[in-house]
Specification:
- The termini are close together.
- The model has no long low-confidence stretch (mean pLDDT 86).
- The protein has strands spanning 10-14, 20-24, 46-50, 55-59.
- 0% of the residues lie in helices and 33% in strands.
- By secondary structure, it is mostly beta strands.
- A hairpin with a 5-residue loop joins strand 1 and strand 2 (20-24).
- The chain has a two-stranded antiparallel sheet. Strands 3-4 form a two-stranded antiparallel ribbon.
C-alpha cells in the first residue's frame, strides 16, 4: 500500500465440529497443518487510503 508491501488475505478455518469460519486474516499461529494458495495478479495493483470514506481502496 502506498508503494509498500501490503497483503490482503482471506481465510477459512474449521473446528472439530465441522463448522467453517471465514474472514480476513490479520495474524495466525499454525499448530499442525496449513494449506495456502497464492494467486499472482499480473501488472501493478496498489492500495491507497481514502479519507472521505475511511477505507483502503484498490489503485490500478
Amino acid at each position: 500500500m502506498n508503494d509498500e508491501f501490503y497483503t490482503h488475505i482471506h481465510m477459512s478455518a474449521g473446528n472439530e465440529k465441522g463448522e467453517v469460519f471465514g474472514g480476513h486474516l490479520n495474524r495466525a499461529i499454525i499448530s499442525a497443518t496449513c494449506e495456502i494458495v497464492i494467486t499472482i495478479i499480473e501488472g501493478r495493483v496498489d492500495h491507497h487510503f481514502d479519507e472521505t470514506i475511511g477505507l483502503n481502496l484498490f489503485k490500478f
